[in-house]
Amino acid sequence: MTKVYVPTDAAARSVGADEVAERITAIAGVEVVRTGSRGMLWLEPMVEVETPEGRVGYGPVAPEDVDGLVAAGMLRGEVRDIGACLGLVEELPWMKRQQRLTFARVGVVDPLSAGDYTAHGGIAGLRRALSLTPAEVVETVVDSGLRGRGGAGFPTGIKWRTVLGAQSDLKFVCCNADEGDSGTFADRMLIEGDPFTLIEGMTIAAYAVGATEGYVYLRSEYPDAVATLKEAIEIARVEGWLGADVLGSGFTFDLHVRVGAGAYICGEETSMLESLEGKRGTVRAKPPIPALEGLFGRPTVVNNVLSLATVPTILAHGAEAYAAYGVGRSLGTSVFQLGGNVARGGIVETAFGITLGELVNDFGGGTSSGRPVRAAQVGGPLGAYLPVEQFDLPMDYEAFAAAGAMVGHGGIVVFDETVDMASMARFAFEFCAAESCGKCTPCRVGAVRGVETIDRIVAGDDRQKNLVLLDDLCELMTDGSLCAMGGLTPMPVRSAVRHFGEDFTT
Ligand SMILES: NC(=O)c1ccc[n+]([C@@H]2O[C@H](COP(=O)([O-])OP(=O)(O)OC[C@H]3O[C@@H](n4cnc5c(N)ncnc54)[C@H](O)[C@@H]3O)[C@@H](O)[C@H]2O)c1
Ligand SMILES: Cc1cc2nc3c(=O)[nH]c(=O)nc-3n(C[C@H](O)[C@H](O)[C@H](O)COP(=O)(O)O)c2cc1C
Ligand code: SF4
User: Does 333 share its domain with 316?
Assistant: First the structure.
């Protein structure tokens, strides 16, 4: 029987996936399977067709297309490529060129089927972890080279080693699923498409450091992810993957979901901890680091969704297998996210070392406007703007840092030649002014003064003097801010001035 996979994630549903599924279900001889999204963003749901001979097509299908596709024989497998059928031929190679480890099951399995999960390799990592000592699990993660996928790139295993070594009667694992950065959506897609992987990763983390309780701090803007994760946790408890005696090992760990309230700053780990404790989300000074004094003052692992969701594959296949991907100190794969003015937006999981240009042009297909690409902002709203002349930069934490940029969470937002970089720099300050927690002066006041300074530069008011003032302000915010909100806002500003200075004249 022909199987048609129709995504269930929020983005796909917002463009009619439920109706597509309904219409296709009515066709004899076709089974509809709802999975998470494969990760390609389109204005129609990306549907995949599989016949007994294998996968025959992957492409966008709007509800009103279904009847036409049936008439064309596509759903009976007579048309080999659904993309070609719709005049779009790029999608299948786009998927095949990826190296999906963290996202291996996303778009393949029913997100809430425990049977599907184990049939596709789920729980193998947890079983392996439970056969090792906690210290051995930690060292496996250290050896894999995994670095924090939330943006800062701190080695995950080293963080866990600190928590393991801390003496306390109570320890926690907290997953940062606040995903506040514009142009990032991988955390959401992972949770909506393969939630058990995150649960498994958190359970392994808890075993490794000696924690008994975990929290997922999930943004309220993701109601589908909240519902999916809560249901997955219930199922995991029934399966014995969580609870008083995980897989009969005697180890106890349970997990709770806490929903944020729309503050970007609550993605900063110490604000997130304050919020989890029921307080207003403001930044705590570090040290002490959360690894030593985190949630309710106890040693706490704080990791991003993707850092935790990558741990099961590392445990299942070994540190060496994971570290075989990547370059330099940027090992493994990263889940890059293409957005903005790009022809084919979506998730691209590949080994580190791929260039920015390959991602934007080969995977992304250039701009959606058809005009030439002018710049990409990498790493969210606090990341640098890179001109096309720098698109041969490899996606590598150190190479980006050397270029005055950051890989961050792997979000890439593309702009065409019509972008005005002075207004983008102004926006960086505006964003900081709106999202600042207000605790320290360089950020709270500096962001407002930054907007005014850029306005004077663009108006041609004492331009040279104000450019110097802008540079001073950026230096002060970088060095004097309590957290990376104020500390990194100068990065997009300075990169815009450095690479696109012509936009700052009247
Ligand atoms: N994902 C998003 O939506 C988003 C949004 C805004 C910013 N960011 C990212 O956040 C980053 C900044 O985050 P940050 O301020 O938490 O970075 P950081 O460098 O202060 O910390 C990174 C992580 O390493 C831990 N750590 C640091 N030193 C340690 C040590 N010696 N031992 C154990 N653990 C240690 C920290 O507790 C934290 O968990 C930026 O680079 C940006 O890319 C991400
Ligand atoms: C303003 C600000 C917002 C942040 N938002 C997020 C976020 O939404 N998700 C995230 O994982 N990390 C975010 N971070 C980074 C966290 O503070 C922290 O470094 C991360 O959760 C650690 O996990 P990792 O080591 O697995 O990346 C943010 C940092 C700052 C300064
Ligand atoms: S840099 Fe901004 S967000 Fe961070 S503590 Fe200071 S005021 Fe708050």
Answer: no
- Could you tell me if the CB of 484 is within 6 A of ligand 2? yes
Domain presence at residue 344: yes
Angstrom distance (rounded) from CA 357 to CA 390: 8
Residues 254 and 388 in one domain: no
CB environment 472-491: b (16+ within 10 A), e (fewer): ebbebbbeebbbbbbbbbbb
For residues 317 and 333, state if they share a domain.
no
107 in any annotated domain:
no
Check whether 10 has a pLDDT greater than 90. no
Ligand 1, CB cutoff 6 Å, lining residues? 148, 150-152, 154, 159, 162, 179-181, 184, 267-269, 289-291, 302, 379-380, 382, 406, 408-409, 483-484, 488
In-domain check, residue 124: yes
**Whole-angstrom Cα distance, residue 161 to residue 453?**
45
419: tokens are: 């972008």
Domain boundary among 398, 416, 434: 416
> How many domains is the chain partitioned into structurally?
4
Q: Distance (Å, rounded) from C-alpha 186 to C-alpha 98?
A: 15
**Total-model pTM:** 0.95
Q: For the complex shown, is ipTM > 0.90?
A: yes
Q: Are residues 25 and 67 in the same domain?
A: yes
- Tens of pLDDT, residues 436-485: 999 999 999 999 999 999 999 999 999 999 999 999 999 999 999 999 99
CB of 304 closer than 6 A to ligand 2?
A: yes
pLDDT by residue (tens digit) across 38-95? 887 777 778 877 777 776 667 778 888 887 777 776 666 665 555 555 544 445 566 7
407 with 444, same domain?
A: no
Whether ligand 2 lies within 6 angstroms of the CB of 292 is answered as: no
> How far is the C-alpha of 108 from the C-alpha of 117, rounded, in Å?
10
